[in-house]
């Protein structure tokens, strides 16, 4: 029997997260809980995630109520043994809140170091977020159609242990400038190559999601010497089929509810799509030039409602190590497009996961990528 | 993306549209900074509350025009400039001054398209600040948006936050009809994340700032923030609210209001304008007519009394809708029980 009191605080899902909203408690006060039990749904601007209890005990208090928005680290609940008196719990909460208020005052001074910067690359202004340092071969993250660097919010920091990891917004996306030229994979691959040159990176691992996977494959084809390995997450370019209801719906949806319906195609667990995520997408789509940019990309990459680029030949050679990660329940690019690849290509088909494994099962994906990159360093 | 105040967001919208389109000009009393007189200092203020500061410097005095204190002449001139090819943004300063130039707005600008058989465009924006809570007394504190909403041919915009202000003002400037853009003067220092790039928020599309099961709250401008605070408090008591910010009173997003009322069955309207013939009565009538069968309780309005805005601070505070009053109205509508007649 322990008389410990454990604070449950607003978690930090990735370094970009500064605050979260209590989307819904799943455990009533007074309920017994075990380590790993789902306690509460937390909604961030990108995703709604279940937060698991770090301890075993009894949920004594819900300090934050449903719908409340709180900074990372703020007290949301208290777990303790039923034997701990209420007065102790109250005293604990008071003390915690006072300490937290004091520490957040001092923290605000040295925060805001880990921020994206705007870089001029050729004719484009790109939002680039670089994290991590070390001897490891750097890693470039390329997001997909309509996405931005925040698509990697659950991966970026985790992968940046011992290496530089660079995420950026493609032209036409996020906060980057909105001119997408011809809107082709070759165009985007060229921008990525220019970015690498400007960052003075000769060779790096490239991890691409969806359209970003197609861009990574194109980069490996056009500038093979710059690509140490490829991590392809539900990549474009490996088959003709693509869900055009998603593509067209994403371009056309102009209300939160319509956007929310379209975004549901992205994940298997539909409850992950929160209001704020939809609101974020809508805000992006209102920016001058975005509509034209997305339409240009869709017309260039998916002419006639099919993927126009066949990049399977890039994987036929065995020059570059490749791992492919795909959700079996992908509703945008079917996971069967990973079939029939060269045996040297590592394949991970994840059950009960949709088009965004890097969000839906971030930890698993991070582990796979880490293992893959390590094994390749040893092999070479 | 960075934090910007309501004031900066409006300034940035004006600046970006003036850069994009050379036909966009500003005119009004003191918009250039009150440089009237022979020894005037250029750009000293940038309007009485500093909203247009720095624009004279960038665009010069052919595009940022200080006008005499004659609303009838410069609002009329702006309407004429609009119908002949420019995109003027005329600033009326306090909306209360509309009394001096109502003919130019109501009988001229608003009627051009209709009376010229659809052959005239009038891309005119009239910016004005409104609202009580600034301790500016009865002639500088009114919220006259129902007056404009009443006039066919005008579009009426009431931004509720810095993000909304920038995107709605850009839409207003790009619109080919006269738009009345009303800024609650108490909000100029409120801050939030606002994209650096230009973006347009369409008119006639309400924004849901909260989604809930129990009660729909419709609120305008600064009242949206108060409604959100009330909704957050009520959430802790187990009452979940939808909060609708219609963004524009004309056009009005009737569909969203009716859909949300159908979902919740209860409606509270928060409107800081004078209570007779205001937006609250307008929306109450709409819902009573179109969605009567979905209502589970009488519609409640949180509005000021039918008096001039008092100057005394305590009375002015009492005059305005508050978070407490919104919370009380929602609680009252939740407490209502339909009694079957025997």
From TrEMBL, chain A:
- Pfam families (UniProt xref): Abhydrolase_1, Biotin_lipoyl
What SUPFAM superfamilies does the database record attribute to this sequence? alpha/beta-Hydrolases, Single hybrid motif
Keyword Amino-acid biosynthesis belongs to the record? no
Q: Which UniProt keywords apply?
A: Lipoyl, Pyruvate
Domain Lipoyl-binding, by residue range, is 5-80
Supply the source organism's classification: Bacteria, Pseudomonadati, Pseudomonadota, Alphaproteobacteria, Acetobacterales
In its keyword annotation, does this UniProt entry include Transcription? no
Query: Which organism does this sequence originate in?
Result: Komagataeibacter diospyri
Q: Which cofactor does it need?
A: (R)-lipoate
Give the protein name, as stated in the record. Pyruvate dehydrogenase E2 component
Q: Which domain of life is it from?
A: Bacteria
Q: Which NCBIfam families match?
A: PRK14875.1 (NF011457)
From TrEMBL, chain B:
* Protein name per the record: Pyruvate dehydrogenase E1 component subunit beta
Q: Domain Transketolase-like pyrimidine-binding spans what residues?
A: 4-190
- Keywords for the protein's UniProt record, in alphabetical order: Oxidoreductase, Pyruvate
Q: Name one GO molecular function term.
A: oxidoreductase activity
Q: InterPro entries recorded for this chain?
A: THDP-binding, Transketo_C/PFOR_II, Transketolase-like_Pyr-bd, Transketolase_C
CDD domains given in the database record: TPP_PYR_E1-PDHc-beta_like (cd07036)
Q: Does the keyword Oxidoreductase apply?
A: yes
Gene name for this UniProt entry? pdhB
Q: Does the keyword tRNA processing apply?
A: no
Checking Pfam families in the record gives: Transket_pyr (PF02779), Transketolase_C (PF02780)
